[in-house]
């Protein structure tokens, strides 16, 4: 790992090694920060290939090749076994983990739940969460600094809990959050057995302990689903209602209780921490660049006045959305995609063999020297010309048929909450407490995002 003196003109970035590492060094680095296995050289070339022990790997940062992996030959590049072994104990064969026909029917059945009309119908939940965040943060003005990570995790968990678990009977939200956090922290760390390529049936002790912690939560979820099936939907259907009613239009198949449980847990895991991290990084960036913060805040105040944002406001907040998009570029919550090649292929001129690990280091792709002007700079204005950016060089939600099903929901939630906060407050970084980008399962700001707050 090279020693880096941070450039004060640029927001924080991960330290990358000069060259690929050996097997044990890769294991140690990946346990602490998966970004640490991305060599700096990868940010200069379309593809970088190598070996870890007996296994061949390729890091791909060439948009046409990424399109081939995620769209044109998606069946030839399923999720890697490492990814599945981390996620399957908690999420089963849900949308996030399943492959082939089992994934396709679930996607067809669930897609209508995330249509624009349903996202708009659920946006009042986001508005209420934004108002609650304003109240909490307002109590800190002039008294103490806040950790934006904690504040945004609270806000987004309120949202995802309300849209998936609006029936609160028998579900302890704090227990849900604690169980999921424990699973992510212990189970998502790369095992030496993963690096050595041992099959998934070989026990990983940390994951076994974490899965045991989830068993009670899974039982509570099944009980909530059973109650809802008897009681019927809410006046404004939540995600549980929509999935209970979901039917695959091709086969007529509906989700079983266990499939519903797995998918609801998937949406809780994917929909709460990722959006919270995006918002925390966006607030860090606004504090880093007061001019951007002032411009976004002025736009929010002009549109919102003294109220919280709603669905009807999102289209009128283009610069706030650009701030979110740039935060997702610099700090993508899912900073690493890993696939296993099923067939021989060629990507960016490199030979791909069956069994090779094909990685898309999204964090590196978003900072690639040949794809972005000033790749490490915070420049929300680059998104004013969104059509000029190749969609396969920007993957905060993945792409192709497996693009994140909740992408529209996540963007709407982020814009609603960020605009509401910037309309009310001005944020300043606490000196000496800058975050460090660290990825285990998601890209987190290690040390938190500590901000001083004043009312506007």
UniProtKB/TrEMBL annotation:
Cofactor dependency: heme
Domain of life, source organism: Bacteria
Binding locations of heme: 404
Keywords attached to this entry: Heme, Iron, Metal-binding, Monooxygenase, Oxidoreductase
Transmembrane helix recorded as keyword: no
Recorded family membership: Belongs to the cytochrome P450 family.
Listed name of the protein: Cytochrome P450
Source organism of the structure: Roseicyclus marinus
Gene that this sequence comes from: cyc
